[in-house]
């Protein structure tokens, strides 16, 4: 399947590029510009909870306008008190001006005060209203406080008119600036200072912060990723390709999300999640594809073959990786919270579209570029400076130019740092396992202090003005936070209500209704919540029944303390009402903002075991279908859980305990549960994602005939650099979002950065090879019946076919060299061409040794485009008669040479150097114990200088590999030399044996 995709993308490369570029560019701009206006700030609560039912009952009874949405905090000027006549007069006039401007007319954004019973909406009833109680009244004391410095404070509230959360936020944005101008007018400055707090302003700050931080992070991430990609690839052209995929991924995902928003509610966090996950994953996938394509070109394959092999290897792995991450994210749809499902949708869209574009558009662009993917490289820039012979640094530039010019073949990579690290790990696997596991378990320890919380002002930075006002209000007025706990009675008698309230007032954790009187009740007297202003009766239909509704309010000492709220709510719900009858609607519900948040967190935590189970099952199933092993998925799941635990431990240490808050501008406290659950799913998916890339390369090695230890070493070494680079890329994108002012985006960014860097280095490059070394061949174990299932429904090819062109193996000619002055070592492992027979297995020491009896087979050199040059026919004037040169009789004799001919490479043998010229190429593996003749032994030799008995030299034989019954193979035409001379991109021309000069380069065809 993947081979067919590779051939298709090469054949229709221009069509694919044109169609995808035009369509995504058009729809992406539309989606990016239109998505923000369609998203909503909803999905924060569990719709099936009792607290939501209580909110629906009170909203139906009172209308949404009863809520104290906006809190205006009043601080008198220096030397004045809140009870001074001029202060009261100025505040009252300001309040009247605000209501006159924003609470009247058809486009009113606020509700007029006293539209309802002022005792029920006591927070909208204020000492600054006409007819307010005097200073000695108890209600007056409720609305005033004295701070530690002796200053007095007061407040009043403004209820919003709209019943929709999203619309209230938009209305607040529209009136915020003119409202602040009225509150802070020149006339008021000498009298008082006003600050604005409340749930709507806090939520609006979060909403605006999300959109602002998304744009800021994208502006930071793209240049940062470009710099990293340039140094990873060492070239501009190769670095640009993953960035193109990343930008198009964001555009396409935004367009799809915008269409979805027309039919369903989409939370505003979907945009930042698309940018964070989509951009990072797209860069990762692009890195894997481009790196593999360049590797295939370095191995000597032409462009069509390199494209096909890239899709068959890296493309297949990307599809498996994306399916794993999508499966992990799909598990989040069991959540009852719309916020979490929206974020999961954004991440899912980013991963899915990145995989599709990496499998279609990116190979098409690679097919068009071909070897030009190496253009504008770091090596090219260095060679320019090298020609200038700069003083002092000229030698360093020359060294760097030669080093960067070397082809990164598999053999070179395996001989590098990651190969050496893998060797060290596999020598002492038990020590590596103990060290890494101990380290990660130690990082997990802070999890015991993990706390969850709902949305609050603490998610804003400490320097935010609205955050400071809300903190000040909650410190001064803990009993009037605007977030009361409500007991909603339905069809209850006075005696039943009194019985419940008497027990409720004994529950700790609530403030007294009158802070000056410690004996006052914690819950207010139940009041009639039925509105008569709109013509409603004293009965409401709740859950199919007509009921009367009465409410009682109480305030938590700390509404953001989820643990205390949970204990209080559990105690309230544990009260048994005498004569309660659910069938008749007699009973009570516990609601209010703190309870809404607690119920949402509780529902998430109750589903967490099911979520983890689904993640394990989905991951195990997908990896089994991909690899055909049961051991590997189990090992991957255990390691992913270890990575996840260490990540949660780090996040707890940082964000709950507050370490680094001064540096990164946040306050330690409970973490937002839905965002943390998203982090769990994404980190788990990415952990298995990198496992897939490592194991896929090992499987590829084994399919080529490598032993388990050889596969472990080669797979880890070949993917180590790429996986680390991919982790750094995604970490750079996450780091850009760490600049956000919102702490919930910091959760995701810091969690991803820590998980990626730990997982891609310590876990995948140390723990994985160590564990697999101990498991040995058991790593590939699965029951027979499961293997049959995997073979039937698996995910495609696991090995590369032998490459041929016109019936001739591409592995019969040497590839490009490893670099100037250095011969390319033997290629052993996945992706290297495999001959018909493979050498015996190397010793089980984890190293890859060149086989002793295997011909030195290499793929052909790459050509810019097309399948390669055609072979020419007979030379002009050829008579059809074969003229053989005389047989040499002594070592000093050489066969005659035709200066018009060109050199024909010999299968299995490398190009030779001219006399006196140092060798830049390996001359083939050393002869093994079976001799140069292979398994059949050496051919008998004739007289000295004549070669094997009865045979002509290879250049003169009419038969042999190039003759035979069908006539000789026609040689390839000569390759044109580039501007770099004989050692240029096409490599040096093959020479004859030392001392003999060039080989004869043209032979007439065999005479019939």
UniProtKB/TrEMBL annotation:
Transmembrane regions: 12-33, 224-257, 269-288, 318-335, 347-369, 431-452, 604-625, 637-656, 676-699, 720-738
Sequence ranges assigned to domain SSD in this UniProt record: 272-368
Gene3D superfamilies in the cross-refs: Multidrug efflux transporter AcrB transmembrane domain
SUPFAM superfamilies, sorted: Multidrug efflux transporter AcrB transmembrane domain
Any GO CC annotation of this UniProt entry: plasma membrane
UniProt keyword GTP-binding, yes or no: no
Bias type Low complexity, positions: 814-825, 903-918, 949-959
Pfam families hit by this protein: MMPL
Annotated region described as Disordered, given as residue ranges: 800-1008
Keywords: Cell membrane, Membrane, Transmembrane, Transmembrane helix
Domain of life: Bacteria
Record membrane topology: Multi-pass membrane protein
Family stated for the protein in its record: Belongs to the resistance-nodulation-cell division (RND) (TC 2.A.6) family. MmpL subfamily.
Name of the protein described by the UniProt record: Putative drug exporter of the RND superfamily
Keyword Cell membrane among record annotations: yes
Protein localization: Cell membrane
Pro residues bias (residue ranges): 861-877, 885-898, 924-941, 968-979
Organism: Tsukamurella tyrosinosolvens
